[in-house]
Amino acid sequence: MKRTLGLVAATLALLCGSVQAQTAPDVQTRAWAASCAACHGTGGKSNSAIPSINGQDKQVLLTKLLAYKRDQLPATVMHQHAKGYTDAELDRLADHFSHQPK
């Protein structure tokens, strides 16, 4: 009985650690995404001439972000923003906005 309880406790501890590991990056990604709201609107839904980015295909968003970063796509300010992130961080942002409702 004690062994079973020990295994259950160990399993729960591992699961809790796993949840924390998955949650921390999500919090960071949401913090980055919040800065995008200044131009692209809350959740990426723009109410201005600036394009909405919510619900777009992840690969399309990522391709554009990487093109901005590498000065391969003309921009007014996006190239400067994109250069502040690693490719992996841009991937996380693209994933985040692709899951936002249209």
TrEMBL record:
Residues 1-21 form the signal peptide. Keywords: Electron transport, Heme, Iron, Metal-binding, Signal, Transport. It comes from Hydrogenophaga laconesensis. The keyword Glycoprotein does not apply. This is Cytochrome c553. Residues 21-101 form the Cytochrome c domain. The lineage of its organism: Bacteria, Pseudomonadati, Pseudomonadota, Betaproteobacteria, Burkholderiales. InterPro entries: Cyt_c-like_dom, Cyt_c-like_dom_sf, Cytochrome_c_Oxidase_Subunit. SUPFAM superfamilies: Cytochrome c.
